[in-house]
Amino acid sequence: MAFVPRVFVSGDQIAEGRAFVGGSDAAHILRVLRLGIGDSVTICDMRRNVYAASICEIAADGFFALLGARVREDGEM
């Protein structure tokens, strides 16, 4: 099984089936892990919703991820 990074974002960073990831999280994923368009990430919205996602667009200050199905996690994150 491949490693898929988990990223926590606020609810206002999710809109129209996409999530924006910026700051040090984006820098780590893009520069250190060297992920790019089409690579998988897991997005958590801090409301116990978890999305399987894939990077769909890279911007100067982060990236956008296309969200897949939402799963509700009741355990501690």
Give a verbal description of the structure.
- By secondary structure, the chain is mostly beta strands.
- A six-stranded mixed beta sheet has the order 1-4-5-6-3-2.
- The longest helix is centred in the middle third of the chain and has 10 residues, at 23-32.
- The chain has one helix spanning 23-32, and strands at residues 6-8, 14-15, 18-22, 40-44, 49-59, 62-72.
Protein topology:
Layout: E1 6-8, E2 14-15, E3 18-22, H1 23-32, E4 40-44, E5 49-59, E6 62-72
Provide the descriptors you would attach to this structure in a database record:
1 helix, 77 residues, 13% helix, globular, single chain, 6 strands, mainly beta, 6-stranded mixed β-sheet
Quick overview:
The protein has one helix at 23-32, and strands at residues 6-8, 14-15, 18-22, 40-44, 49-59, 62-72.
Low-confidence stretches: none
Strand order of the largest sheet: 1-4-5-6-3-2
- Topology, number of strands: 6
Beta percentage is over 45%
What is the share of helical residues? 10-25%
Q: Average the pLDDT over all residues and give the rounded result.
A: 92
Rg on CA atoms, Å: 12 Å
What gap, in angstroms, lies between the N and C termini? 21 Å
Oligomeric assembly: single chain
What structural category arises from helix and sheet content?
A: mainly beta
Number of helices: 1
Q: What about the largest sheet?
A: 6 strands, mixed
What's the shape? globular
User: What is the helix/strand order?
Assistant: EEEHEEE
